[in-house]
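Backbone shape codes:
***
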Amino acid sequence: MTLQSQGASSVSESLNWTLPSTEEVLTLPVEELFSRFKTSPNGLSSEEAEKRLEVFGYNELVKRKKRAVVIDFLSYFKSPLVIILFFAGIVSGFFGEIVNTTIIFSIVIFSIVLDFYQEHKAERAAEMLKQRVATTATVLRDGVKKEVRLAEIVPGDIIYLSAGDIVPADARVLSAKDLFVDQSALTGESLPVEKVAEPLKAYDPTITEWNNYLFMGTSIVGGSSTALVVKTGSLTEYGRISRRLVAKEPETEFQRSIRSFGYMMMQVTFLLVVFVFFINALYMRSILDSLLFAVALAVGLTPELLP
């Protein structure tokens, strides 16, 4: 289990140290901050970085758990329209209409497989695109600047930032030259904020007052800086927000409308089928013919290929 799943105050048995508190990160001098993070101006060694990666986990935000492919496929069968058609197919098969049953089931299965294939293919394409555009950051490792994948950045790394860069993790500014950061997405500030390397004289819990702290996901508008990574992944301020967002995706208005339409079609179809069945029976037609006609009506009224 990584520290990201345990919390920022968890003790790493393998590293024998804990992450400093936010107050300490903001107010401690640089030299003492290096000591608390067990690092140095030459950065971490590659071996130490790998060890910390195992403990702290990848520098990634919390992701929504994916359902198994089989479960995802079976979820398509809970649609009211699919239920109507399956019921019609079962009734047709019960009365010996094998051809009609085969046709109904074939259409339903084909429609579900087509929907599942298109959605699954779109998800895979999005994942592949995400991997191709994976960004790197300039990190000081073994005393040498290296390009490292964002996911492999760990607390204690020293990163280099310049205009146009996206801050890869929460970090304390070590040095800054005319450094301005756009953090409007996180704090709502309309103008870029100047960042400095001096420690705060007193801790203030308001994040807009943290002028020596860089937030993950914010962008460098101007200037350059070196910074010490203090938090990664879901431990960052941005990660705390993402944890709440991925808890449960709210149902969209389109999804609610489709679901309501499906239930409405189920009710209308049931009433029409019952009505037509009794009208046919009233005119002395056979019960079997009346039922099969009603089932055919149900199939005809059900627009299965709608989204």
Summary: Confidence is low (pLDDT under 50) at residues 5-12. The chain has two domains: 3-59+153-245, 69-129+250-301. The beta strands are 136-141, 144-149, 158-162, 170-182, 193-194, 213-214, 219-231. The radius of gyration is 30 Å.
